[in-house]
Amino acid sequence: MQIPKSHPRYHSLMIREKLVSAFRKGIVVPEGLIAHGRGECFDYILGESSRDFALEAEKTAVAMLMLAKNPVISVNGNAVALASEEIARLAKAIGTPVEVNIFHRDERRVEIISKEMERFGIPVYSRGDAELEGLESARRIVDRRGILKADVVLVPLEDGDRCEILKRHGKKVISIDLNPLSRTSRMADVSIIDNITRAIPNMLKFAEDLKKANKDELKEIVEMYDNRRILRNAILAIKEYLEKRAGELHD
Ligand code: ATP
Predict the structure, then answer these.
(1) Best CATH choice for the domain 52-235 from the list 3.30.1330.40, 3.30.710.10, 3.40.50.12640, 3.30.43.10
(2) Which terminus of the chain, N or C, has fewer Cβ atoms within 10 Å?
(3) CA 178 / ligand 1 centre spacing (Å)
């Protein structure tokens, strides 16, 4: 579909087009389109920009990934549809492998998603040769070299169950989820309340800024971070945004 650049919701409509095209390629499942709708709604009432609390979480996430022994970026269909190239650049910048981990697992889709990421010349794990105990969905199927042994996992667009299991297996979880009320956001160690299309490019900039930072400086960023404060600020930001909009309608 041709979308005129002058359309007031051009950017949002372009993102939808990306998802629909990824759906046609077999990268995204119909359920992923619904999940995106929930995200869009939260983005709307957050003002569709990266707020202070998101930037702080993004910077901390980068520091945490840089400090990790075995970091990994877990990707699903929606994440790849919306930010494949940026994810690959981030993976290269901080030396992190990418693992394909999807809720609606089917080997063909895993292969399509892997190929989509491999185009950028990064290692992509998708063997599915290990299981995370305690989880029923297919997301329990992981790669021995990646999520199974990881100490820090970046999980964009996650569902709460898996986040809980990753934590139970002793991993630090960094989520990207526009909904500050979701179980994922409430359970993650670092909750990035931002659109993945902005979050990953922001993280790339932080990776560049922190390239020369030493371990102590990175540790300090992580130690100063308080995720409950970040979640509280995100919820308050929604409240303030709605109050402002309502205020504009006064007689
Ligand atoms: P939970 O199980 O954590 O309570 P959920 O049931 O909403 O959450 P899913 O249905 O898997 O989980 O939805 C994935 C989440 O991804 C949603 O909460 C949605 O806000 C978020 N999301 C969707 N699109 C984007 C996007 N582009 N950027 C960031 N987050 C997004």
Answers:
(1) 3.40.50.12640
(2) C
(3) 7
Q: Report pTM.
A: 0.95
In this structure, how many other beta carbons lie within 10 angstroms of the beta carbon of residue 164? Answer: 16
- Tell how far the Cα of 212 is from the centroid of ligand 1, in angstroms: 34
CA 159–ligand 1 middle distance (angstroms)? 7
Q: What is the DSSP string of 65-108?
A: HHH-SSEEEEE-HHHHHHHHHHHHHHHHHHT--EEE--SS--HH
Q: What are phi and psi of 173, to 5 degrees?
A: -115, 130
pLDDT (tens digit per residue) in 152-203: 999 998 778 888 889 999 999 999 999 999 999 999 999 999 999 999 999 9
